[in-house]
Design brief:
By secondary structure, the protein is mainly α. The chain is about 70% helix and about 0% strand. It has 14 helices and no strands. The two termini are about 35 Å apart.
Length: about 375
C-alpha cells in the first residue's frame, strides 16, 4: 500500500511538471523573437489587455505557489505543533530566495558584460523576473509556514483589495513617468537600476504585492489538488474556482482593467483562473487517464525549469556576441519573406537549442535545483 501511494503521488506530479515545462518553453519562445515585427500573440499587451504572451510569467508564479504547498506541507504540521523543526526549513527558504534573487541580478551583469558595457554596477538593473519569483517564493513560503490555512484567502483578498485602492487612489494606470509605481521604484532603486524600455518597471516593487497574492492562490489550489480527503470532488471544486476567478476578473476589469505591467487584481484573477483550469485538465488527461506521451518534452523542461530559464537568458547574448544570431537570422530572413513568421522561426531555433539541452539534462539525470 505504501509503495502504491508513493507511485500515485509521483505520477500525479507529472501534470505540474508539464505545466511548468509548458510555461518555461513559452517564456523562451516569446523572449527570443528576432527582427522588428512579431505576431501579436507573441507580444505583450502595450498596456491594458491580455495576450497569450502575458500568461507565461503569471502561470509560473501560480505554479510556484502549488509547489510551495507540495514541498512545505509536511513542515507546516511541525510549525503548527510549535516545534523548532521549522528553523532549518526557514534557513533553506531564505537561502533559496537569496540565491534566485542574486542569479536574476547576475543575468543582467552577464548580458552587460558580454556586450562590453562600461560602468556595469552604476547601471545594473536590480529588478527582474527571477527576482520577483524569488521574493514571491520566500514571502509566500513564510506565510504558508506560519499562518493558519484558514487565513490564506483573507490575506489574498486584503492584499488585492489594498492594491486596488492604491491603483485607483493614486492613478496607478498612468502611462507616464509620473505613475506612482514608477515614482516609488525610482525613490527606492534609482532610475539607472530599473527597466529602461517603458515608464513602468514591470517587475517593480509595488507589483510585488499582488504577485504575492497570486502565489498564495497557487498554494490554495495545491491544497485542493493534492488533498486525498476530497479526491472525488476535487476536480469539481477546482473547475468551479477556475470559473469563479475568471468571472471575478471580468467584473473587476470594468474598474480595474487587466494589465500585466501594473499586475492588476483583475490580471491576477484572470491568469490564476486560466492556470487553475489548465492544471486541472492536465491532471485529468495526463495523470488520471495516462495520456502523457505528447508531453515528454515539456516534462523535461519542467524538471529543470529554473535552470533552463537561466540558460535560455544567457545563450542569446552569447549567440549575438559571436555572430551566430546574425548568421541564423540572416539565413531565416532571406528565406522567409514574411517578417513575423521569420521572427517566430528564429524563436523556434532557440527553443530547439534549449530542447536539446533539456533532453541532455534529462538523459543524464541532471536536475538543477536552485
Amino acid at each position: 500500500m505504501s509503495k502504491n501511494h508513493t507511485n500515485n503521488k509521483s505520477k500525479r506530479l507529472m501534470s505540474l511538471d508539464v505545466l511548468r515545462g509548458l510555461t518555461v518553453f513559452g517564456m523562451i519562445l516569446v523572449n527570443n523573437g528576432a527582427g522588428k515585427e512579431h505576431f501579436e500573440m507573441l507580444k505583450h499587451s502595450a498596456w491594458n489587455g491580455l495576450t497569450p504572451c502575458d500568461l507565461v510569467f503569471p502561470f509560473f508564479l501560480f505554479i510556484t505557489g502549488v509547489s510551495i504547498y507540495l514541498s512545505l506541507s509536511k513542515h507546516k504540521s511541525l510549525v503548527d505543533a510549535r516545534t523548532s523543526s521549522s528553523l532549518p526549513v526557514l534557513r533553506k527558504i531564505l537561502f533559496r530566495t537569496a540565491l534566485m534573487f542574486l542569479i536574476g541580478v547576475a543575468l543582467h551583469v552577464w548580458d552587460m558584460f558580454i556586450w562590453g558595457h562600461d560602468n556595469i554596477l552604476p547601471n545594473l538593473r536590480i529588478t527582474g523576473v527571477l527576482q520577483r519569483i524569488a521574493l514571491c517564493y520566500g514571502i509566500t513560503s513564510i506565510i504558508f509556514l506560519y499562518v493558519r490555512l484558514r487565513y490564506l484567502w483573507p490575506i489574498i483578498l486584503t492584499l488585492l483589495g489594498g492594491y486596488s485602492y492604491f491603483l485607483l487612489a493614486y492613478n496607478g494606470y498612468d502611462q507616464t513617468d509620473g505613475n506612482i509605481a514608477n515614482l516609488i521604484d525610482r525613490a527606492v532603486f534609482g532610475v539607472n537600476h530599473l527597466y529602461q524600455k517603458g515608464p513602468i518597471d514591470p517587475e517593480g516593487l509595488p507589483g510585488l504585492i499582488p504577485s504575492i497574492a497570486h502565489t498564495i492562490i497557487g498554494v490554495r489550489i495545491g491544497m485542493l489538488l493534492f488533498n486525498p480527503a476530497i479526491k472525488r470532488r476535487r476536480m469539481m471544486r477546482i473547475f468551479a474556482l477556475s470559473v469563479a476567478m475568471i468571472g471575478v476578473a471580468y467584473i473587476l476589469s470594468f474598474g480595474l482593467p487587466i494589465n500585466k505591467r501594473v499586475w492588476s487584481p483583475s490580471y491576477v484573477f484572470m491568469t490564476c483562473g486560466l492556470a487553475t483550469g489548465l492544471l486541472a485538465l492536465l491532471t485529468i488527461f495526463v495523470d488520471d487517464r495516462g495520456h502523457d506521451k505528447w508531453c515528454r518534452l515539456f516534462q523535461m523542461f519542467g524538471l529543470n525549469a529554473i535552470g533552463l530559464y537561466v540558460i535560455s537568458e544567457m545563450i542569446p547574448s552569447v549567440f549575438g556576441r559571436v555572430g551566430i544570431h546574425d548568421t541564423v537570422w540572416g539565413a531565416i530572413s532571406s528565406t522567409i519573406s514574411y517578417p513575423c513568421l521569420a521572427s517566430l522561426c528564429y524563436a523556434l531555433f532557440i527553443c530547439s537549442v534549449m530542447s536539446l539541452i533539456a533532453w541532455l539534462l534529462w538523459k543524464f539525470k541532471i536536475f538543477i535545483k536552485l
